[in-house]
What we know:
The chain is of the alpha/beta class. It has eleven helices and ten strands. Strands 1-4-5-6-7-8-9-10 form an eight-stranded parallel β-barrel, surrounded by seven helices. Helix 4 crosses helix 5, helix 7 packs across helix 8 and helix 8 (261-270) packs parallel to helix 10.
Amino acid sequence: MHKMKEKHILHSGYSHSLLRSWQSPNTEITVDNLMYPIFLLDDPDAKDSVNSMPGVYRYGINHLKSTLQPLVSKGLRSILLFGVSNKLTKDEKGGNADSDQNPVMQALPLLRKWFPELIIACDVCLCPYTTHGHCGILNENGVINNDASIQRIAEIALSYAKSGAHIVAPSDMMDGRIGAIKRNLIAANLSNKVSVLSYAVKFSSGFYGPFRDAANSAPQFGDRKCYQLPSGSRGLASRAAARDVEEGADFLMVKPGLAYLDIVKQVKDNHPEYPLFIYQVSGEYAMLLHGANNGAINLESVLLEILLSMRRAGADCIITYFTPMLLDLLQPKRLELGL
Length: 339
């Protein structure tokens, strides 16, 4: 029989669930590690299913309280709101992104009243509200006007902040938008009350397809490769995160999730003092759900394995459409991944 060195006997160190938890530091999954993205329609009574994302809906404001109440009772701590414009007029500057008719603007004071302990983040972008579907304001030649874009993005962020958002989350990837938002918050005496969650490292990705269906925000021409990051670039990812840290971001995000875990680790290693968010995006959700529905994987097991990998890479909060399912799994105790 082969003689094994004593220090190479590993099983003894993870033969019990508590021992396994000690071997997996900072990978626990609790309600504090989850943020639930919600699509808000401009039709108050609507509840539309998203065909490419089974189980995900676009809600009118009149469905919001009844949808969230059971989730909050199960421990939901934070949400991320996306406005969806089906009826509102779109223009070149996204005028209805922060108008009185905007569903996010209407929902914020109600949510604060209904769920006073719930943290509310608002995605800040122009693409759902512009005729061209791009994330900024365009010059006549169709190229992004960065200065005009960040001024408009900062205006929208301030409007959400004044209406009750705890966190504003610019997803446009314009240069300098974090600084512009922070300056507006300071001028309005809101800088100590409203946080900025930067989509600091957002890649141009094929995983966004179902989201663009849900948010009605696909670009009408061209693509977003000139402002979203190239998928293969570690250097630009590092520079983008450093830029937003320098401009005053409170939190950082990497998006998408699973295909970019090396970047998650890189950002966390470079900025360990900053809470790091990861977005398990629409294509990741659809891929796992369709795989499970076709018998290829066990959804619960694979989902928990992926979330653990995100935590292991350095993510502090995971934005996921699976949050309702995870809240059920977290009842009545915290999760251990049983492998």
